[in-house]
Amino acid sequence: MTKEFLRKHCKEQKLYMTPGLNDVLYLHFKGFSKIENLEEYTGLKSLWLESNGIRCIENLEGQTQLRCLYLHQNLVKKIQNLDHMQFLDTINLSNNGISKIENLSQYKFFLKN
């Protein structure tokens, strides 16, 4: 998930070329193994990362406006690094490797499984 790929993807999808103006980003079925280079996408409200090879929820510190996070059908084993997302109300982590759900009392999102 390089910055170059993200710029090209935004252009192909007819999204804004200024990263912070985009409120949605569709990055599903791209073969990513890691979430990275999204620092400039500070206006995202919905992020689609389903059906990749993502192992860890990470590098989303700039996503403070995020409301929906779709990470189903990945390789995530632990729910973590979401506490800075105060507006997050929907997250899909189905079909991952999560064996125990814990430490979610501070989150207000709706968990689909």
From TrEMBL:
Top-level taxonomic group: Eukaryota
InterPro entries in the record: Cilia_flagella_integrity, Leu-rich_rpt, Leu-rich_rpt_4, LRR_dom_sf
Subcellular location: Cell projection, Cilium
Keyword Repeat: yes
Keywords, in A-Z order: Cell projection, Cilium, Leucine-rich repeat, Repeat
Keyword Repeat: yes
PANTHER family: LEUCINE-RICH REPEAT-CONTAINING PROTEIN 46, PROTEIN PHOSPHATASE 1 REGULATORY SUBUNIT SDS22-RELATED
Family of the protein in this entry: Belongs to the DNAAF1 family.
Free-text function comment from the UniProt entry: Cilium-specific protein required for cilia structures.
Name under which the protein is recorded: Dynein axonemal assembly factor 1 homolog
